[in-house]
Design brief:
Elements (H helix, E strand, L loop, with lengths): L1 H29 L1 E6 L2 E2 L3 E3 L8 E2 L1 H12 L3 E6 L5 H6 L5 E2 L7 H4 L2 E3 L4 E10 L15 E4 L3 H9 L5 E3 L2 H9 L5 E5 H10 L3 E4 L7 E4 L2 E3 L3 H17 L1 H9 L2
Helix pairs in contact: 2-8
Length: about 250
């Protein structure tokens, strides 16, 4: 009988330890929030030696850190190809996506978006002295875009050209520098960052061809609780001028 009681007591202790371990693991998971991004889009997200979170830095990372801090959570960043982000969010691999992402009808079919936090537009990066002065001059030119970015859909669907697609903006710009492309169409903020780092390049704008677009944070479909928390932080950051500060800091 004593042996039975001892075995029973041992089983109870093991169960308690397992439950405690599982409980702790669950608590750890709750203390983390995962941001999905494509860290090839300076100044919004990029890889650097000493980032805000690990090796990651930029405007979106700074905003995401504020969101995580407000929720008492640790920010973890999953870096992946831009085209994979919506699927990663829809399948629960990440909790939200901050990647200089534009609100578009096709994306709204799979995810919801926060309030917008940044106004951007498409521009053209060319070599200084280029004969490209407007979008009308793209006829017959070798055009580079980043796969899945707004520049990709704008060039193909709006302007009707067939560009060369790249996974990274930096790769497209390097081909421009090496005379393999005539122009790169990309968002205005990263365009400025690339031009600043590559002497001999210039930005060409065409307000008639390229409409303004709004960046927002993608969240799981129907997750109003997370949307409210993120929107509260975004409102505070905009009203306090912090987003403008992030822009100035990470665009240098």
């Amino acid at each position: 009988m004593k042996k039975v009681l001892k075995v029973a007591a041992l089983v109870v202790c093991v169960c308690m330890l397992v439950c405690a371990f599982v409980g702790c693991a669950g608590d750890d998971k709750k203390d983390v929030i995962v941001m999905g991004t494509n860290a090839e889009f300076p100044p919004f997200e990029y890889v650097t030696e000493n980032g805000i979170v690990g090796q990651f830095s930029g405007i979106d990372v700074a905003i995401a850190k504020e969101i995580a801090d407000s929720m008492g959570k640790e920010l973890v960043i999953e870096n992946m190809e831009f085209e994979s982000l919506i699927m990663a969010l829809a399948t629960g691999k990440v909790d939200f996506v901050a990647a200089g992402m534009t609100v578009k009808p096709d994306r709204l079919e799979s995810v919801d978006f926060s309030d917008t936090y940044y106004l951007a537009k498409q521009v053209m990066i060319v070599k200084e002295g280029s004969d490209i002065k407007s979008a009308a001059d793209l006829e017959g030119k070798k055009i580079g875009v980043v796969l899945g970015y707004t520049g990709d859909t704008t060039v193909t669907e709006t302007l009707g050209y067939e560009p060369e697609r790249f996974k990274k903006g930096a790769d497209a710009v390097m081909d421009l520098v090496n005379d393999k492309l005539d122009v790169v169409v990309i968002d205005s903020a990263p365009a400025k960052a690339f031009v600043d780092k590559n002497p001999g390049l210039a930005i060409v704008e065409d307000a008639e061809a390229f409409e303004n677009e709004e960046y927002a944070i993608a969240i799981p479909k129907g997750d109003t609780e997370l949307a409210d928390k993120i929107n509260t932080v975004l409102k505070e950051l905009k009203e306090s001028g912090k987003i403008d500060e992030f822009g100035a800091t990470y665009s240098e």
